[in-house]
Amino acid sequence: MIMILHGASISPFVRKIMLALNYKGIRYELQPLNPFLEKELAHKRHPMGKVPVLEHDDITVIDSTVIAHYLDDIFPVPPLYPGNAKQRSQIRWFEAYASTRVTSLIGGVLFYQKILREKMQSKPCDDEAVEQCIHHHLPNVLSYLEEQLPKDNYVSDHFSMAEISLWSIFRCGWMAGLRLQPHYPILHSYLQRIEQEPWIANFVAEEDHQLQSFYCEAMILPNQHNKS
Fold first, then answer.
1. Which tens digit of pLDDT belongs to each residue from 137-152?
2. How far is C-alpha 168 from the chain's CA centre?
3. Are 172 and 106 within 8 A, CB to CB?
4. How far apart are CA 131 and CA 129, in angstroms?
């Protein structure tokens, strides 16, 4: 039975699982589900009304991290969590950090205000919230990743869920106008390496074709050394 993935492809969590499925070469069908517009249906699929939700055979798997581990359990090659115990702990940490702190700022503020509200819903953007995020909150997150990520490799020396999770949310930031050069060159290069993977480049091309009209102009980030 082909897997069915419920969710909106613009969501970083749904994108994360789409990329995981693509990486493993697993066939699936995306069933569009917008939890903001289809709240009743979303709650039928997920007790918290969230996406993604994966249907496979006779089971339903919810939560992007749970789904990722499920995929590794049933299709272990190539692994989403490769390496030894130390490397897998690092992968899981960056996945968790991407899903919480990074997403709360890039997804919950920048992407929500500049793309979902301003571009897609034609509602006013909360410029003050965006400014607070850009100048007071996000620089700490970007500086942390700049210090922690490898300069010339992936987190565990192999492509993993760390790369998928971080790139998925920073893709939302890029759509909202977030640019990391010149202040965060290591983070920028890390994300560029991920995007150069051919199967991700193909994903980007498809996404650009569908969503390009919603993309925002580049915004100016403060120098990481002068952050508040």
1. 999 999 999 999 999 9
2. 2
3. yes
4. 5
The helix (run of H) or strand (run of E) holding residue 7 is strand 3-7
Q: Which residues of 161-188 are buried (b: 16+ CB within 10 A; e: fewer)?
A: bbbbbbbbbbbbbbbbbbebeebbebbb
Query: Which residues lie below 8 Å from residue 133, measured CB to CB, with a gap of 6+?
Result: 105, 109, 110
Amino acid type, 11: S
Closest-CA residue to 100 (of 135, 72, 65, 71) = 65
Residue indicated by tokens 């051919």: 198
Is the pTM of the predicted complex or chain greater than 0.85? yes
Q: What are phi and psi of 85, to 5 degrees?
A: -60, -40
Given the DSSP bridges, would you call strands 3-7 and 53-56 parallel, antiparallel or unpaired? Answer: antiparallel
Tell me: the pLDDT tens digits for 3-50? Answer: 999 988 889 999 999 999 999 999 999 988 665 544 555 555 555 546
Cβ pair 163, 192 in contact under 8 A: no
Cα separation, 47 vs 199, whole angstroms: 33
Torsion region of 197: left, alpha or beta (phi above 0 gives left; psi -120 to 50 gives alpha): beta
Does residue 169 contact residue 103 with C-beta atoms inside 8 Å? yes
The single residue listed with the structure tokens 């993993």 is: 160
Element (H or E) spanning 54, and its range? Answer: strand 53-56
Max CA distance (Å), the chain: 54
